[in-house]
Amino acid sequence: MKAILALGAAGFAVLPMWAQGTAVRPVPAISAPAPAVTHSPYGEAPTLPASIPARPSAGAVPILPVSQIKPGMKGIAWTVFQGTEPEAVPVEIIGRWENNWGPRQDTILAKLGGKAAKTNVAGGMSGSPVYIDGKLVGAIALRISVFSPDAICGITPIEQMLEINAIDASRPASPKAPQVAMGERREIPVPASLLSSGGTLTPIETPLALAGFHESTLRDFQPYFDQMGVTAVLGGAGGALYSTAPAPGWQSSLKPGEAIAGVLVSGDMSVTGLGTVTYNDGKRVLGFGHSFFNLGPVDMPMAKGEVLMVLSSQFQPNKFANTKEVVGALRQDRHSGIMGELGAVAETIPVTLKLRAEPAPGLPTGERDYRFNVFVHPKWTPFLMLLTAYNTLQDLNSTAADDATYTLRGRVELAGAPPLEISQRVASGESPMPAAMQIGAWWADKFSRLFQNQKALPSIKRVDITLEMSSRRKLAVVESAWLDQTEIEPGGKLTGKVALRPFRGERIIRPFQITLPANVPRGEQRLFVGDSSAINRSSAMAAMLQRDLDITQTVQLMNQEKPNDRLYVALIEPRPTVYEDDQAMRGVPASVLNVMQAASAGRPMAGMPESIRVLDESALDQIVSGATTLRFKVR
């Protein structure tokens, strides 16, 4: 890596190319007494010197290499305890813990005094810069054990943070991202850190603050957060951020010691992670001193923070904060810290969500509108779509939730591909999983399929979603069906009736009529009458087996899926349906199928042994479940 030397009064700094070009300004030295001979962590907490230097500002600064760190050295850290202005915190060096953070990666152990001695090493302090004699040492990034009476922290040396490269495209092996299937509930074991962290340095928790979310949402999603090792808390946001463009005055924001936030969701709902700025060269900033989610290269909005208070605790101290305006974009999320660029714009997905609710039968339907932006990432985007959809349904406060039916209609606009337009209904009582979670998981799965495309990542321009809740369980089961006649000529009309049993109420008799295709072979034939599950089985199989579809083909395949609130009448043909990319070829003769298999060069062909040709579909105001088969003869 190209570098220059920034010389200070003593020692030197190796700065990456992006940190070059700014003159090094001298920083007033701390006029502190000579280090004491004793530097035991069990002694008194360090105190501030009589003369405190001015708070750090943006620009190049000399660094103190980890090789020159000695026990007993005294310095000052900067972090925000309330508001937006960082305050000085006295620091006393305990020593170097060699190779603790990885091969040839030392951690500096230190003890904090001042306000930090009371609060302990709190979540949100990650990245607080530490200076000794005006030279930048590194970032407070780790804490040692829980229930400790001493504010002992681990400092990530600034040399390791300066190694973060803005153009590094490599992907870390162990990112923190949702791994379980959408909607799957798992019992999560007690985190090992609570059982064995007595002598282990662990990264300071970066609280994932959820603003505009219900406590019930946080509780229901706790297994997901535990699985990722993420501490989720109810937080705040200073006004809804509908735009991810940098706010005016971004040029002078995020000075060392100030609060910095990575933004996963912004708008009427907000999901952010708070830390502290370590270094700012006027354009790019470093923070945290450890990873956010260890995602590698990212494109995430970066915002300012306002700290309300710091909760003092020996177990889990934490900053309570509001996320303020966006001032740039995070570009890297690495083992030793995050890197952001001031003034940059992160690409996000704008979402508009309309919620309609029928509080009780016969009462007028209420409506609410939500707007928010979602972070773009193959694993995080589907999860955030599930989280936000589920949370809006918690706004309903319906007393009839046990007998509710949820309807979701969504439109996803993409660049260079047709829009994805989908619809689904879920009724309570069908599964042990709550209906609101089911509908959210179904919605999230569509984004998972888009982002799992092996040819390209989707470019999603906007998302429009309508969620409707009816306080009735709208579910009808196909009980039986019959034909008015059992023999018919090719091309003739075939009539019949189907009996549907609703969840509550009298049996419904519904007539149907189809026109038989003229090319139907003579002899006995079968007619399918029922729900969409069998109709969609072939397209689901095609999506699973065909891994080389592009985004357009993936969208078109999903658009072929039939909604589940309709009754279908279809002809069952004994010849197979085969998919060529996103195109279904039904009733393929055996001779043609053999030629296609030979031409596929060993590539698995998606298909079903029989073909289902839909001849009629009628919309119902309820979910249709079940199916039956009728036999008739073509003369």
Number of strands: 35
Give the class-level CATH name of the largest domain: Mainly Beta
Biggest beta sheet attributes: 6 strands, antiparallel, barrel
Strand order within the widest sheet?
3-4-5-8-7-6
Instruction: Indicate the CATH topology of the largest domain.
Output: Thrombin, subunit H
Q: What is the domain total for the residues?
A: 4
What fraction, in percent, of the residue positions are helical?
10-25%
Residue share in β-strands: 35-45%
Can you name the CATH architecture of the largest domain? Beta Barrel
Query: Structural class of the helices, strands and pairings?
Result: mainly beta
Shape: elongated
Report the C-alpha radius of gyration, rounded: 31 Å
Residue stretches low in confidence (pLDDT < 50, at least 5 long) are 1-39, 180-198
Q: Overall pLDDT, averaged?
A: 83
Spatial gap, N to C terminus = 81 Å
Helix tally equals 10
Quick overview:
This protein is mainly β and 635 residues long. It has ten helices and 35 strands.
Describe the structure.
The chain has 635 residues and is mainly β. The chain folds into four domains: 3-162, Thrombin, subunit H (Beta Barrel); 200-347, no CATH class; 349-470, Dna Ligase, domain 1 (2-Layer Sandwich); 475-634, no CATH class. The protein is 14% helix and 40% strand. The protein contains ten helices and 35 strands. Strands 3-4-5-8-7-6 form a six-stranded antiparallel barrel. It has a six-stranded antiparallel barrel with strand order 13-14-15-18-17-16. It has a five-stranded mixed β-sheet with strand order 25-35-28-29-33, with no helix packed on it. A hairpin with a 2-residue loop joins strand 6 and strand 7. Helix 6 (380-393) runs antiparallel to helix 7. The N and C termini lie far apart (81 Å).
